[in-house]
Design brief:
Layout lengths: L1 E2 L6 H6 L10 E4 L5 E2 L11 E4 L6 H20 L2 E11 L7 E7 L6 H17 L6 E6 L1 E3 L15 H4 L9 E4 L6 E3 L2 E3 L8 E5 L1 H4 L10 E2 L10 E4 L2 H26 L8 H29 L6 E8 L3 E4 L4 E3 L2 E5 L12 E3 L12 H8 L15 E3 L2 E2 L2 H5 L12 E7 L3 E7 L4 E3 L2 E2 L2 E2 L3 E8 L16 E4 L3 E11 L6 E6 H10 L10 H8 L1
Parallel strand pairs: 6-7, 21-29
Antiparallel strand pairs: 1-3, 2-7, 4-5, 5-6, 5-24, 8-29, 9-10, 9-14, 11-12, 12-18, 13-15, 14-15, 15-18, 16-17, 19-20, 22-23, 22-28, 23-27, 24-27, 25-26, 27-30, 28-29, 29-30
Helix pairs in contact: 2-3, 6-7
């Protein structure tokens, strides 16, 4: 059975986006390409993936004129949430047509109305000379995704368990009086105007949630601890998750230990079993010591305080020339944060993913060096991918690197407190989003979008990852994660504010952020 753009069948609406993390429901589309319904004893639907737009006539007019025209039309007809230019196709196919991908609040638009609106958008594209781009509408909500160890030793058997407690990027943080609302620390910076201090940037909506606080500028006015807004390492759920991981691995080791005990002494495996038994015994002891230390030192929220909020402008939309979202706050790290263990801004490439396992080294190298013409990626000896600068806005729009198919693409990665280390593809054209806060829709605002790397890589981010710094394999920052779009808790599009925009806004608010620094630089300022 096939269906086209006339009226999608129930199965097509449900299965059209199989392969995407949230598998959103199709509402309507302008394409007349038939969709073939799976059939047979074991029906399967080939997975679809999202790809950056890359070179296309759309990128020459989208930012200045076309985006505004599409948004104006959508605002008059539907309860839209996002407009994401993307290439969408089957993963094993060579065909990835450019699609104007419109998100609407789930259940708000009928198929009939959806068909009317997508064809209206298609007409606007044609009026601007764009005839090879189809429009698809899906159900999707836009949401705003809350003493340390040094980075673990290269040969530390507990490295992945210590990583959440280290000073590398991806710190799980929360406001002290709301430990159930978790996010991610974005990036450290030092400020020559404020010697002796180390700062951490994150998203505003983590420390001033828009549904529970007034949207007003905040500046710390007092050194009185009672008047300050504390920031703690780990929300309640993140701490429990970290402790459970340590406990679970210890219990697995104990099960293996029990099996080794049952190997006969004269068995050919006896010598190897004895060595393994000794190693596991030592590892279990290390697990017990780490669990005890974490539970003792980080249990009560008061023991987890790492600093306090010093500055945060109101959450604002369509800010500046780029019309981006302004969603940031600055945390001053205090004496409880061990600056001696800070190595600068660095992502631990050995960190766990959302599945609890690290990305294999060879696979990660292939991700970051996907093509024969790609610059060589050398896996750091200490696993730490250090920040060396920012990706210029011109390069994000016109990438000089390519993906495995030779198409222009910047592959990026991030370490978030929820989903861990993930890989994605940075889009070349901005998305337009509309947030729903306290019952009121925000003004349309621009976001950089990151799409999942593949149908099997999982979402690039999930709730709790807001604030994560997004970098490429050369150690250049693309931006800070602010939110996402998807039908469910899973995320199809992850959104970020560009790093150049953030640094500009920090400067306009009295900071001179220096994001590339070493431990030696920090110590010199702390003298």
């Amino acid at each position: 059975m096939t269906s086209s753009s006339a009226t999608p069948s129930t199965v097509e609406r449900r299965c059209y986006y199989v392969g995407l993390p949230s598998q959103p429901q199709l509402v309507a589309r302008t394409s007349t390409t038939p969709w073939i319904e799976p059939w047979g004893p074991h029906p399967t639907v080939p997975p679809k993936v999202l790809r950056p737009v890359g070179p296309h006539p759309l990128d020459k007019i989208w930012e200045d004129t076309l985006a505004a025209a599409v948004v104006k039309y959508l605002s008059a007809h539907v309860d839209w949430t996002s407009v994401d230019p993307a290439r969408i196709g089957y993963e094993d196919s060579d065909s990835f047509p450019v699609i104007l991908w419109v998100g609407v609040n789930p259940g708000s638009v009928s198929t009939e109305k959806g068909l009317e609106v997508v064809h209206g958008c298609k007409a606007i594209l044609a009026e601007h000379g764009i005839h090879d781009v189809d429009v698809e509408m899906r159900e999707s909500a836009v949401v705003l995704q809350g003493r340390l160890f040094p980075p673990a030793d290269l040969f530390d058997s507990l490295a992945r368990f210590k990583e959440p407690f280290s000073t590398t990027l991806g710190l799980s943080i929360a406001r002290g009086d709301t430990p159930r609302c978790e996010g991610t620390g974005g990036f450290y910076f030092i400020d020559p105007q404020r010697p002796g201090q180390l700062f951490l940037a994150t998203v505003r909506h983590l420390v001033f949630h828009p549904d529970t606080t007034e949207n007003e500028r905040y500046e710390a006015q007092s050194d009185d601890p009672e008047q300050l807004i504390d920031v703690i390492l780990f929300g309640d759920a993140a701490l429990k998750r970290a402790l459970d991981d340590i406990k679970g691995d210890k219990e697995n080791s104990e099960l293996v230990l029990g099996s080794l005990k049952r190997i006969p002494g004269r068995s050919v495996w006896a010598k190897k079993a004895a060595r393994k038994y000794a190693d596991l015994t030592d590892m279990i002891k290390e697990h017990v010591e780490l669990y005890s230390e974490v539970a003792r030192e980080w249990g009560p929220p008061a023991r987890r305080t790492i600093g306090h909020v010093v500055c945060s402008p109101p959450l604002a939309f369509s800010v500046g020339v780029g019309k981006f979202t302004e969603d940031w706050a600055v945390v001053q790290l205090d004496g409880s944060f061990d600056n001696n263990n800070v190595v600068g801004n660095a992502i631990d490439l050995g960190a766990s993913t959302g599945t609890g396992h690290a990305i294999p080294r060879a696979q990660l190298i292939n991700f970051l060096q996907p093509h024969a013409t790609s610059p060589p990626f050398k896996y750091p000896y200490d696993r730490l991918l250090r920040l060396f600068g920012t990706i210029p806005a011109t390069e994000m729009r016109n990438p000089t690197s390519v993906d495995e198919n030779g198409d222009p693409c910047i592959v990026v990665l991030k370490q978030g407190s929820s989903s861990g280390l993930t890989i994605g593809r940075l889009n070349t054209i901005t998305s337009v989003c509309r947030h729903h806060l306290k019952g009121v829709d925000s003004a349309p605002t621009r976001e950089l979008a990151v799409y999942p790397h593949s149908s099997t890589s999982g979402a690039f981010s999930e709730a709790g990852d807001s604030g994560s710094l997004v970098m490429d394999g050369r150690g250049r920052a693309a931006g800070m994660l602010t939110g996402s779009a998807g039908k469910t808790d899973a995320t199809d599009c992850s959104y970020l504010s560009p790093m150049e925009f953030l640094l500009e806004r920090l400067a306009s608010n009295g900071h001179k952020p220096r994001i590339v620094f070493t431990a030696a630089d920090l110590k010199a300022l702390l003298v």
